Amino acid sequence: MLVRGRGLSLLEREEISRGIAAGLSGRVIAAGLGRDHGVVNREIARCGGRAGYRAHTAEWLAQARRARPKQRKVEACSRLLEAVNAGLAQRWSPRQISCRLAKDHPDAPELRVSHEAIYQALYCQARGALRADLKGVLRRGGTVRVSRAQRAAITAKREAIPDKIMISQRPAEAEDRAVPGHWEGDLIMGAGNRSAIITLVERSTRFVILQRVPYDHNADRVALLLTQAMGRLPQLLRRSLTWDQGREMTRHARFTIATGIPVFFADPHSPWQRGSNENTNGLLREFFPKGTDLSIHSQTDLDNVAYLLNGRPRQTLDFDTPAEVLDRMLTEAGEALTG
Predict the structure, then answer these.
(1) Which intervals hold domain Integrase catalytic (predicted)?
(2) Helix, strand, coil percentages in the chain from 3-state DSSP, rounded to 5
(3) Which domain, by its residues, includes 47?
């Protein structure tokens, strides 16, 4: 088995020196050490070559390289530091920042940086309060796991939804995400389940709409607010809505009559059937932590959060943003969102 993740020791360097003296190739020496041949060949090349390699000299050079202060690329280039800080200010992840920089600046190698380098620049500087701050901005903050038995008990208490149409009857075009207009929806709940926010995600573009639920999230109110949130969408984006079997959707027929959007219901205990929405709800907890009062946020606050998410580059969209992808689709179709 190859040794990984550890620098060469003095004993290994002495073996390399003896192997060179015996006329062995770098690949043969590496096999005897249990190292990749590239590690051994690079070691020989940077320490005098086969003619000048000396184990103790190589060990001294290695220690000198480890000891010297190294300025990270993120800190050394002011343009790169400014671009990374701009991405962090928009709450982009290091991977999103890294890939978006490569996409936006293909001819500027000084603006290329790996997501790992950004993480290192963040965490290696973190001490005390800063380290606590970094921990506090984790996007997912769940602290309590719900067992299957508890989840079953919760489901058993839910009202039966009349005339529900299951996800198995949803048009096949919704599954491959090739056609826009198929949405996934849910509620995220505040402290004590007394406040809520309606979250809607378009499956093709991952475009997000948030709707404030100022108080009681009963079925009548949710149907009305859903109609307000989706009623202004162009016809292209009114194909279907998929929801879980929460009792807040018992008035789904009213919503469908008002908007022309059919509602399909996911199977019990199957969050993956609404994967885009579940993922987005996790991202939203960065802005709306669990156990807090969601009613304090105005609709303008929610619109601002949706704007941030819709302007965030997404790996699944080849690091385009949901807003960019939706804009292209609507432009090609000759439609536009109304106010």
Answers:
(1) 167-330
(2) 55, 10, 35
(3) 10-66
